[in-house]
Amino acid sequence: MQLPKHHVAAAGIVINGEGHVLLIQRADNGRWEPPGGVVELEDGLEEAVIREVKEESHVDVRVERLVGVYKSVGRRGTHVVSLVFLCRPIGGRPEPGDETVAAGYYSREEAMKLVTRELMRDRLRDAFANQTAPFVRDYRTPGA
To answer: Where do the Nudix hydrolase domain residues begin and end (predicted)?
Structure first.
């Protein structure tokens, strides 16, 4: 039996003391979303989200809890299991990184307008719901 190939990703929903959420604008496609990326083989899961947030936004964070687990099955062989964590900033200021063109804190309303991909909007809504148990969601692209 051949095992399926998935990437594991980690993302941070970073909410500051004013209740604003950190978003980055990706350099590759121009989309706004919470910072995150692929978990490297040598990474721990929380370590990965801390590293990704720092690389993409220059913000240092503390992980508070797991928001949810999200599986995306795409049509071009892009199968991803994403772990999304609620984080609090502990240092740094939002600035673009090598993979981003913008980074900043936005109100919940502004964030929901900037983030256009529905699966990313779900992650924001899940974090804002303040549910103690993690959400589990599956996304399948038609024809995948």
So the answer is: 5-128
pTM of the model: 0.93
Q: Evaluate whether 80 touches 117 at the Cβ level (below 8 Å).
A: no
Kind plus residue range of the DSSP H or E element containing 89:
strand 79-92
CA separation for the pair 105, 115 (Å, rounded): 13
> Which residue type does 20 have?
H
For the record, the structure tokens of 106 come out as: 């936005």
Domain ranges of the chain: 7-130
pLDDT tens digit sequence for 7-63: 899 999 999 999 999 999 999 999 999 999 999 999 999 999 999 999 999 999 999
The number of beta carbons lying within 10 Å of the beta carbon of residue 27 is 14
Euclidean distance between CA atoms 74 and 80, whole angstroms: 8
Coil, helix or strand for 28?
Answer: coil
The CATH number that domain 7-130 falls under is: 3.90.79.10
Q: What is the DSSP string of 59-121?
A: EEEEEEEEEEEEEEE-TTS-EEEEEEEEEEEEEE-----TTEEEEEEE-HHHHHHH---HHHH
